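alcohol dehydrogenase (NADP(+))
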Amino acid sequence: MSTVTAYAATSATDPLAKTTITRREVGPHDVQFDIHFAGICHSDIHTVRGEWGGVRYPLVPGHEIAGVVTEIGPAVTKYKVGDRVGVGCFVDSCRECSSCKAGLQQYCIGSGMVGTYGSVGKDGQPTQGGYSGSIVVDENYVLRVPDALSLEAAAPLMCAGITTYSPLRHWNAGQGKRIAVVGLGGLGHMGVKLGVAMGAEVTVLSQSLKKMEDGLRLGASEYYATSDPATFKTLRNSFDVILNTVSANLDLSAYLSTLTVDGTLVELGMPEQPMVVPAPPLVSMRRHLSGSMIGGIPETQEMLDFCADNGIAPEIELIAPDYINEAYERVLASDVRYRFVIDTESLRGE
Ligand code: NAP
Ligand code: ZN
Ligand code: ZN
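Predicted structure tokens:
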């Protein structure tokens, strides 16, 4: 076992504070790595604040993790000391079920995926995430960071990147497709970049026009404010696919009406409260309402390689760990351009 410095939440309301946690002994199939960077995902905030229920405090959030391997177990074959690696939202799953066998570990129907934090690991201990100096993970749940990607850019790809890449691929959002990304935050800005790189025509739907210049610079061809009711009139029956990345409740009926015949709204945001879905906008154009959760290990590696090959990286604001609480407030105020990434150097080797 090793002791590591980390930032933990101790309740739903107290600020996160510095603490120490232990990491398990490196097992035969385990990789230990020094965490260099950890992204702040809005899911960290939902979780810490108890919006999804069932939190066991203290909790160390962080599931957008990138760093360098420091130790490997004797049976490890995929990684060696010094390799640049990452970990996303899960660190284990049953490995036996049809989902796991298909590489869709995030949809494990056996025991369910083991979350990077807030779950129970195979050592029987609560899992603790990436706002910390190092981590021990089974090699089969570790990703390789391609040379062309910096570690700080790779970190947010582990969740924000794969969460938008996977539905874009699944719903074939390539050449000739018109897609909309709702909410220009951490997920949203990756959705725009990835959608454009796949050849789709991307429209941003944001609360205001404040980030319009950014949206167009990221590659969107159109940008609308959802606070303007004319937007929904203009865009009626337009999109093949909508990625809804908004962390709060929306009037889904207005957004559904912007889908064309057989179009699909993919819910990615996970607001605390249920949303109302009236039948008419779904029924009238044979529209689909769906959802998607992160992505499996093979697809996450494919996404990392795709980003490296296409020069795609998130836009990040690097912060020190003592800025985490302020960063949370800024994310909640939609004041993130476009992902906070914690430089965890001060948490290593203390
Ligand atoms: P984020 O950086 O905070 O981005 C969310 C964006 O939604 C904001 O930047 C804002 O964009 C818009 N927004 C926020 N509040 C709004 C409101 N009241 N009304 C309308 N728009 C609003 O968050 P994120 O990290 O991208 O995560 C987004 C959501 O996805 C969270 O609920 C998170 O838990 C969830 N998530 C899901 C998965 C998955 O696997 N499905 C993975 C990761 C995260 P504008 O300012 O442009 O309007
Ligand atoms: Zn996330
Ligand atoms: Zn499984």
